[in-house]
Amino acid sequence: MVGAAALAVSAWPAPATTVSDQQVSTAAHVTNARVLFSLLPLLVPGIIEISASANGGDSNPVPMFVATVVLVLLAFARTVRLVRVRDRQQAALERSRHYYAALAENSSDAVIVVDAAGQILNDAPNLAAMLGRNGEPTAGRDALHLLRPIDRDRARSALDRWWSTSGVVVDAEVQATPADGSARWFGVRATNLSNDPVVAGMVVHLRDITNRKRAEQELSHNAFHDSLTGLANRALLRDRLEHALERTARSGRSVAVIHLDLDDFKVINDTRGHEAGDQVLREVAACLSSIVRGPDTVSRLGGDEFAVLIEESTHALDEAETVAERILKSLTSPFVFDGQQVVLTASIGISVGDNESTTSSMLRDADVAMYQAKTAGKAGWTVYEPSMRAAALERQQLDNDLHHALEARQLRIVYQPVVELESSTITGFEALLRWDHPTLGLIAPSTFIPIAENNGTIVAIGRWVLDGACATAAQWQRTYPGVELTVAVNLSALQIATPDIVDDVARALEQSGLQPTSLVLEITETVLMQDAATASERLEELRSLGVHLAIDDFGTGYSSLSYLRQFPVDIMKIDKSFTDTISDPSQIPAIVHGLFDLAKTLHMQTIAEGIEFDEQLDGLRDQKCDFGQGFLFAKPLDLADVTTFLSHSKLQQRPVPALAGVQRGNPKPQQSKQLPLDPCGVEQTFRRRKHRTMRTEVEDQAPTRGTERALHRSTSTKTERASVVRAERSTAGPRTDAQR
């Protein structure tokens, strides 16, 4: 009895120690000595027997003692083995517990158990950390109160549904409100283990997916917005236009699309770099956004093209026209970049939806109208008309054919005489470009020049015109020695934008042998003002070659007179729209008189364009206009006709003011030998013509397309000028900013 009690006492386990909130106990470590000590009481009976035998007992205690020792040793060995097995299992269990505890503590996820009422049954430190409430217990809290108030009712319904499906795994996404008030998204995976007596609840696994949701939102935004300007892109515009058309069919309201393309934007990229171009696009985007109404959509379609969707309007066309006017007016204000001003213009097309309109048709029609506005002179807006579609198809054909026109020798140069008005002396010619299309016939320059500028072929074509004109002028001078005939060549915006133009001019002069003073390079006012700093730099480089420079179509653009002083220009060409205002030599319009006064102040010579009637010639002579050109003297002539024209004129060896002989800062004209018009021939023939006869005998001009009547200008003054220009095109043939 004593041995059994001792054995029981010695083997009693150590008190449990709390190591966690879950009251996980760990048994005290059992050593071999402790096991042996617990077995030693079994030897007590043998020891008693030996003691009794030593005191005179009859029995032999040795066998009994030996047997007891053996049994104790066997029990010791067995117990030690069992203890070691238990220790290994306990150690493995402890390692596993620490392993999963470390995973839980260092995981970005949280696991909670909730009951049917939504209360959290366990403490989840990770969930508290996710919500910005480190150290706060989660047990006993209502899990639904961690969500946004607007989501709680819906979450309650979902929890009730999940609770009714035991063992089913459910995935969801919820948005919680952390302590700092920011929005946090959690991915939820819930499993109903209410039938498990150990768990007795729903296990909810929470993972923070906020970064993923933000990335998805950003991707979604980028999929429907332009990354450079932040405006809606083409996909979003199409989606909103489609819905707008659906609403229009129900409500009876109208919808309109405005398609905008910046004129000659490529010049900015070529001269200032793409970073400056991107900044310009951002400025334009901000400008457009400030103009439109709240419900309207401003979109960047790509490159330098933008669109505005006007919806939910009772008068969509009127509102579209108003917005177009605002856009053109806002673009007239110069944009300042790196301390320099950049002037922008835009061509705008408008399409208005009806019951049969589709998303594709409205965008297509607005694009067609925009190209019509660009063809008609840029810096204006045009409302789509069905007849424009045929013109668009023709323009596409011309775009394709123009790439091969130069190689196929379909282009030719014609020359229009430039006359010294006081003496009626021929001083030179202006080189103009014509395209004889193999199937469409003669194509007007106003039709194909904008296409050439848009597709980039204008650079190669302009180089070819420059080489041909210089070679022809050099041949004239060899044919008529002692007579200095000049030749004027127009330069496009793309040519001015590239430094190669200086080398091209130098090469043309060297190969032809033409004296630099016999070459006049004409640049339109609009081209100069698009990038005044670059244009001034390029003109200085050209001027250093010894050529003369003329500003063409003066008065039709957006130039500031203060900027004219910075350009090294020798000649001011008065646009035909101003010449047409002269009907009475004794009553010269004030604006025309002012132009001549300005030219004299800047020490520029003047050339009046589009002279058709005697009254105009007399009025220009009274204003001391130096030179002129127009149908009153001669139409543009082929090279063979120029030879005939010159051969029938008398050569006079008398000093007259030479074209471009007056340079800035040197008002004294140079003197050279000039070729006068035959007073009994060409001049008298043209002076006898009457107005109506003049307008019906136009030759060598392609017919203008019947869509220019839809062109509108951004100001009343420009509207008047546009009408005059259209009248000129219908009689004397179209001219453009970069006409050859």
Classified in CATH, the superfamily of the largest domain is EAL domain
> What is the β-strand count?
24
CATH class assignment of the largest domain:
Alpha Beta
Strand order in space, largest sheet:
12-13-15-16-17-18-19-20
Task: Determine the strand fraction and express it as a percent band.
Answer: 15-25%
Provide the gyration radius in Å. Answer: 48 Å
CATH topology of the largest domain: TIM Barrel
CATH hierarchy: architecture of the largest domain: Alpha-Beta Barrel
Structural classification: alpha/beta
Distance between the termini: 130 Å
**Mean pLDDT metric:** 78
Major beta-sheet overview: 8 strands, mixed, barrel
Describe this structure as you would to a colleague.
With 740 residues, the chain is an alpha/beta fold. It folds into four domains: 2-104, no CATH class; 107-215, PAS domain (Beta-Lactamase); 225-384, Reverse transcriptase/Diguanylate cyclase domain (Alpha-Beta Plaits, 2-Layer Sandwich), CATH 3.30.70.270; 409-732, TIM Barrel, CATH 3.20.20. The chain is 46% helix and 19% strand. It is built from 27 helices and 24 strands. The protein has an eight-stranded mixed barrel with strand order 12-13-15-16-17-18-19-20. A six-stranded mixed β-sheet has the order 6-7-5-10-11-24, with helices on both faces.
